[in-house]
Structures are given as C-alpha cells and as structure tokens.
Design brief:
Shape of chain B: globular
Helix content of chain A: over 70%
Distance between the termini of chain B: 25 Å
Radius of gyration of chain A: 24 Å
Distance between the termini of chain A: 25 Å
Strand content of chain B: under 5%
Helix content of chain B: over 70%
CATH architecture of the largest domain in chain A: Orthogonal Bundle
CATH topology of the largest domain in chain A: MetI-like fold
Shape of chain A: globular
Oligomer: heterodimer
Largest sheet of chain B: none
Structural class of chain B: mainly alpha
Strand content of chain A: under 5%
Largest sheet of chain A: none
Number of helices of chain A: 14
Number of helices of chain B: 13
Radius of gyration of chain B: 24 Å
Number of strands of chain A: 0
Chain lengths: 283, 287
Amino acid sequence: MNVTTKAAAGAVSRRRLLPGFGITMGFSVLYLSLVVLLPLSALLFNSTGLSWAKFWDVATDARVLASYRVSLSTAAAAALIDAVLGLLLAWVLVRYEFPGKRLFDALIDLPFALPTAVAGVSLTALYSQNGWIGSLLEPLGLRVAFTPLGITLALMFIGIPFVVRTVQPVLEDLDRDMEEAAATLGAGRWRTFVRIVMPELFPPLLTGFALAFARGIGEYGSVVFISGNMPMRTEIAPLLIMSKLEQFDYAGATAVALLLLLISFLMLLVINSLQHWARKSSR
Amino acid sequence: MAGTVPLHVPAPRKSVSSPRTTESKAVKWVLISLAGLVLLWLIALPLIIVLVESLKRGLDVYWAALTDPDAASALKLTLLVAAITVPLNTIFGVTAAWAVTKFRFRGKGFLITLIDLPFAVSPVIGGLIFILVFGSHGWFGPWLSNHDIKIVFALPGIVLATLFITFPFVARELIPLMEEQGTQEEEAAITLGAHGWQIFWRVTLPNIKWGLLYGIILCNARAMGEFGAVSVVSGHIRGETNTLPLHVEILYNEYQFSASFAVASLLLLLALVTMIVKSLLLRKNAH
C-alpha cells in the first residue's frame, strides 16, 4: 500500500520537480545539432553535385567494391578472433587470482587510450620483414605487413578491449549457484561451462563482437601504416575516401562515405537491440 | 525488504566459489599462461616496440626529435585543440546528462542514440563532413572565401573535427551513472529550499565527480590522439596545422623512424597516464 502511493507520488512529482529542464535540454539539442547532426546531414544534402546515377556509378565501381570487401572481411575476422581471445582474457581476469593481475587488467585498456597512429606505426615495425615478429614469420613464408592479415591484426588490437569490457561485468555478476547445482548433479566442469555459463555469456560476447566489428569497419589510423594500401587488395574503404578527397573528387568521396555510414548505422541498430536483449536476458 | 536486513552481512560472492565451481589447478594455470601470452603478444609488444624503436639511435636523436621546432609546434597545437574541445564537450556532457536522467520525456532513447552517433561514424567521415560544409566546394565555401575566413585546413577545422569525434565521451560516462543515482537526493534538496545551481554544486556534482573526471580523461586522450578525422581537415602544413599524431605519420613516411617513434612515445605516455588515472579512479569508486 504504502509503497504504491509513494511510487505514484514519485511519478507525478518527478515530471518537472527539478529545475533546468528547458535550458539543459535546449542547450543539448542545439549543441548536438551544430556539432553532429548538421555536419552529418551535409553527406545527404551535399553540394558536390552527387546525383543518383553518379552515386550508383561510384558505389558499384570495382575498386570501391573491393575496398568494402577488404574492410568487411578483415573487420569480421578480427572481431571473431577477438571474441575468442577476449572471452579467455575476461575469464582469467574474473575467475582467477594471480600475481600481476592489476597490471593485466589495466593493459586491456591500452588500445582504447593509445592514439591509433601510434598503434599503426608500432604494429608495422613489429610485423615488417625485419621486425621482431615479421622476421620470425618470414622463413615460414608468412607475410603479415602489407597483406590483409596485417589489417586483421591491427583491427584485432583495436577491438579486443570491446569484447573484454562487455563480457567482464556479466561474468562478474554471474550467479555461481547454478554452476554449483550443475556440479552437484554430476556435470563435469567442461559440461557446466558449455551448458550453464556459455548461454549466459553469449549475449555479451555477441555485443562485444558487434562493437569490435563496427569499430573495425571505420578504423583508419592503425590500419593505413600496416596495410600497404594496394588498390583491390589491401585498400580499406576509409582510405579510399581519403584518396578520393586528395584527388578533389568530393562527389566520389561522399558516395563511398554514404555507403560506409549506412553500414555503420545498421551496426548501431544491431548493437542497440543486442544490448537490449542482453539486459533482458540477464534479468 | 527494508525490514529484513540481516544482522550478518553475507559474505561477498567471491568466496562462494567452491572446488566444484573452479577448474583444476593445472587448467587454471594453463589458462592464465595463455591469457598472459595473448596480452603480451597483442597489447604489450606494440607498447614495448615504441620505446625500443625510439631509443634505437640513442638519447641524442630522441631528444632532438622532441625539441625539433616542428614537433614543438605540433605539441602546442595538440594541447590547444584539447584545451578548446574538452571543456566544450564536458559542458555538453553534463547538461545532456542532466536533461536525460533527471526528467522523463518522449524520445529519450532516440536522443541517447543520437549522442552516441559519432562513435559509430568512421573518423574519416568525421573529417569529410566538415570539408563538405566549410570546404571551398562546400555549403559555406564561397561565402567564407569572400570574407577571407579559413576553417578547413586551419585551426577551426581541426577543432570542429575533434569536437565531433570526442562528442559522446563525457555524456556517455555520466548518463548511466546519474540514471542509477536517480533524483531522490536532488528532490530532497529542493524540498529543503535549495535552488538549481546549489543542487548541482552541492548534491549532484559530489555524486558524479569521479565519473565526470573519468569521462574528461577519456575525452582528452581521444582529443589529443585523434588521427583520421584531423588528418582529413588539417591540410598537413608543417609547423602550422600538424598535430602530434600527424607529425608521427609525416616522420614515418619520411623514413625518420627513430624520430617518428620518439614523438609516438610522447603519445604513448599520454595513453599510460590515462590508464593509470583510470585504474586509480576505479579503485576509488570501489571503496
């Protein structure tokens, strides 16, 4: 009784009890429009004379299509590997105690904090023919720098924290009673992991994968150094925008960007519904 | 529930782990070693190589690279851009979080999605849009050139692109935090006769200060380190419109590897400081 009246009173008074709605809302929407929405709308209402025919010409150009293929496939591969490695890192961080754990945890954030250009030059130095790792792989006939493999590796570096930081909190909140019950019923540890833990971790893993994938599609700084930027082979879509701009082909750059933006918005939609689903299934 | 607070606080969940819900020692250490290797290979090695490469040709070369006039002006520009963009986006983040979390209104979810938008957009597009608005062929291009105002390939363009890229950081950190804290404390303050600013300074700000600081730190790291968007609008004029990350690229493309990594090590330092402050803040929050 008491609780319901209180809640009802709260709902009524909450509407406008606190001051500042008008001014904070007004400022936020104005600032959002000026810094984000208006500039973004320039892609749609552009002055570059981009007609539908021209858009279609650019969007279906072989070099443009190849750049999308490179971007999508390397981002997907990197996000998939990150999902596996990220699960391992999150598991170890949440479930085990070991010396150096705090440093371990802090290092996961490095790709978030490190400027992408720095990641780009250091990965290239590591994997070029005479780099620490590149020189080890060379005799095996494996080339990383200036191949799609190098792009994938750079995107793995950029994407790994997304997976770890989405899986980690869910794993921390996981109720161990279920695992205990499974063990009591005679399930082995592996079986418990597959049947009890994995279903709980699947939504955050998928979200982490989607976040890493979305970031990977648009990533530029860490990739341009290691990719070699060969048209048709290792040229990513963001780089193609850049080179069209350098040739003053504004219409072409806009067309490529529009398609890339469309993919990003689709990913945003997918991620939002994934997070919604993950929140619902964790309750 | 309020009347059923147990006398003994239940033990934290960690101690619940019984031998039956943990792996054998061997499995545990195999997993830890594997994770350690992954971390070393994927994250630590790129960090170490920056330091090794930058000092490869001695401290003299390292020092010369950092004291070079072009590097100094790049550093100055980077600091200036951060000093303009971080406060602006912080003010926005706080006001947006207040509007979104302290009131109910229609389309709240949509507004939050719009705030997140720059995270979903490729940095290169974040630069391109300002070329389309302010560039010579853009919306305001002819007007700007008639009035002799430079936006792209100059400081204002770099500031705008950085504003766009770092737009969500502070708001993103504050919204979940303030959502969780609710409005009760502020409402109590108002019944006690406090007015708007008093509520914010005395009630809200003390509650959100660590989250706010964390958001500012992340925003700053990105503002100083942004490469793609700034690269599009900067014009790459040495000593004028080059930021530190762009300077790294220029030196690298000129095969001045040691100098390039020396400048990169400055940015690495920025990243390390960011990470240290973050873990300090997290520990503070945990207590």
